[in-house]
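Hi everyone,

Forwarding the result from last night's run.
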Amino acid sequence: MSHREVMPFDVVIVGGGPAGLATACRLAQMCQQHNLSLDICLIEKGSEIGAHILSGAVIETTALDELFPDWKAMGAPLTTPVSEEEIHFLTSKLGAIKVPNFLIPAGLHNKGNFVVSLANLCRWLGEQAENLGVQVFTGFSAAEILYDQYGAVIGVATGDMGRDKDGNEKDSFEAGYELQAKYTVFSEGCRGYLGKQLNRKFKLDKGKAPQHYGLGIKELWEIDPALHQPGKIVHGLGWPLGMGKTTGGSFLYHLENNQVAVGLITDLNYSNPWLDPFQEFQRLKHHALIKPLLKGGKRISYGARALVKGGIQSLPALAFPGGLLAGDNAGFLNFLKLKGTHTAMKSGMLAADSIFSAFHEDGIGADRLLSSYQEKVEQSWLQSELYQARNTAPAMHRFGTLLGSLFSFVDQVLFRGKLPFTLIDSTPDHACLKSAESSVKIQYPKPDNEISFDRLSSVYLSNTNHEEDQPCHLQLFDPQTPLDFNLPEYDEPAQRYCPAGVYEIIRANGESRFQINAQNCVHCKTCDIKDPTQNINWVSPEGGGGPNYPNM
C-alpha cells in the first residue's frame, strides 16, 4: 500500500449537502461565539459544492431561519416564494382531477416556502462555511473509514487518484489522505457508501424497520415566458404509475428565469420487473397537464437520485464511538411534506451542538455524545415532525395510491397524525420484485425528441464524466448472478431501473453478456438499493467524477 499523508483535524464532515454544510456552519458559529478554536474539515466528492446535489425543490426555511436568521440580507438564493399550489390525481383518460384544498393535509401546504435550486443553496452554504473558517475540500471521495485499536472511528481516508481499471498506479497516481479527527460526521446523503458500513459494524439499524427509498428523476426546462408563473407548484399522483401499489408522484415547479423543474418519483418497492422509471417519466411529460407547458421549450438539464422515505420507523441509532450520522445518510426526510432539506439541516445542526458540547465540556466521551445527540433529536421539532408523518409512506405501500391517500386524509386531517398505532413496512424494497414471467410486460413508446428523450442524450445533459481508465465503482459480489439468476428470473431489471443506461445485456452469437457502463453513472444509488439479490455494491469512485449539475 502506498504511503498516505495524515492530516489531523478536530472534526471531519463527510459530504457537502445540506446536512454536512449545516453541521459545519453551526459548529463554526458556536466556536466563534464561545472563543473555542476547532479545526473543522468538510470533504465533498463532487468537483465543487453543489455538483452532485439534485432535488425538486420546494424548501421550508425552518432550519435556515435558525442557522442564519438574516439569510435574506446575506444573499441566500431563495428568491421565488410559492405563489400558487395544486395537487392533482392524474389519469390517462380523464386528464387531471384537482384535489380540493380542504382534503389536503396541512403538511402538504406550502405557503411561506420557496421554490429553489438546492444545488445553488448548497453553494451559498459552502461560502458561509468557508467564511466561518471551515476548510472545504472538493473533489475528494471518502473511500475508507479509519478505526483505532478499540474499534472507534477516528476519521476517513480519501480515495487514491490515478489508478487504472485494474487498480495499478498510473503516472498520475496520487495516494489518498488520512483525515483523522476526534469526531467524524457522516452526511453522505441517501444510501451513503460509508454509512452502509457503519450500519453493519455497529448494528445501527437493529430493531428498526428496513429503510425504504424512491427514485427521483428530474429535468430542468426553459419555457415560453407567456406560460411561466414564478412560484407555482403542481404535484401529481396516479398516472403514469397508476392508482394501485406502484406508488410515487410527480412534480412541476416554476422557478425564476422562465425555468420549470419537472420530475417523477417512483417508489422503489414496486413489484413489476418490467417497469422502467425513466420511461415512466418520459410518459409523464406527455400528460395534458404538462405537455403544453413544455412544448416549444428547451430542455436544459437532467439528473436522478434516490431519496429515503422510511421515516422515523427506519431511523438507525444516530451515533457510535467517534462519529455521528446526519441528513439522508440516516433518513430524516419527511415523506408527508415531500421535503428533506430543512430536516437534514436540523439534524446537522443538532449534531454540531452535541460535538461542540463534547469539546466545550472537556470531552464528555463517546457514550455521552451518543445520548446527547439522540436526546437533542428526540426533544426537537424534528422528532415531532417525523412522528406526525410516520404513517404516510407505509400506508401508501400497504394500500396503494388511492386508498393510501384516503388513509392519509384520515390520519392527517382528522387525527393530525396522532393515530394510536404506527404502520410498519417490513419488506425491503429489493425483495418486492415478482418474476418477469408472472408480471405484465410494459411497452413504452419511442421518444419524440421534443418532449420525451432517450437515456444517453439525457445523461449527456447531466455533464456526467468519470475517468475512463479507473477502477469500476459498481462492484458485483458475484459476477455470474446477473446472467445466472437475474436474467432468467427478472429479465435483469438493472437494464430498466437504472436511469442512466449503466447496465446492459449484450446478446451476440447466441450468448448473453452483462455489461457495466460505469462512465454513465449519475450516482443515484438505485442499483445498490433495488438489485433483487443485493449483488451490486456502489462504492465511491475517484474524486470529482460523476454528474456536474448546474442549478438542479
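The radius of gyration is 23 Å.

Cheers,
N.
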